[in-house]
């Protein structure tokens, strides 16, 4: 077993994979924005949630077996909450080229940026905690 796996476990790999996949989605969305007026261009996207679930299942098989959130107290929210994605009306005033809608792409890009920042924040907190543990161990 590698020393890094002993120290960091799968969490570092999971953060790396999540950041990489969010970056890939951001690249696809910026390509869509760059080609908004290109005739015949078809929109491309990467579903971050599905990608993250795949990465989690690959890196930590035990997570795939779990059903997700668990309710540990009656005061907690129920785990079966579902949120329907919002829809952008077709008459937004923006020109559409093929399947690319400027407002949809900008919204998805902002969402992806928030997801990237959230994962980066969690990774930073994780490594700050490890750093603190290492310093206290001296």
Q: Which short descriptors sum up this protein?
A:
mainly alpha, 5 helices, 138 residues
Topology:
Elements: H1 3-8, H2 11-34, H3 48-59, H4 61-65, H5 102-136
Helix pairs in contact: 2-3, 2-5
Can you summarize this structure?
By secondary structure, the protein is an all-alpha fold. It is 59% helix and 0% strand.
Description:
This protein is mainly alpha-helical. It has helices spanning 3-8, 11-34, 48-59, 61-65, 102-136. Helix 2 (11-34) runs antiparallel to helix 3. Mean pLDDT is 74; it is low at 63-67 and 81-98.
Structural class: mainly alpha
Q: Got a strand count?
A: 0
Provide a count of the helices. Answer: 5
Sequence of secondary-structure elements: HHHHH
Outline type: elongated
């Amino acid at each position: 077993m590698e020393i890094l796996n002993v120290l960091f476990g799968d969490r570092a790999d999971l953060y790396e994979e999540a950041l990489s996949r969010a970056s890939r989605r951001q690249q696809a969305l910026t390509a869509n924005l760059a080609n908004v007026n290109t005739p015949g261009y078809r929109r491309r996207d990467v579903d971050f949630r599905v990608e993250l679930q795949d990465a989690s299942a690959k890196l930590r098989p035990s997570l795939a077996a779990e059903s997700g959130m668990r309710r540990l107290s009656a005061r907690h929210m129920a785990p079966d909450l579902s949120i329907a994605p919002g829809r952008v009306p077709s008459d937004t005033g923006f020109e559409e080229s093929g399947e690319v809608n400027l407002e949809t792409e900008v919204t998805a890009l902002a969402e992806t940026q928030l997801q990237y920042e959230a994962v980066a924040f969690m990774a930073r907190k994780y490594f700050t905690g490890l750093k603190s543990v290492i310093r206290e161990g001296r």
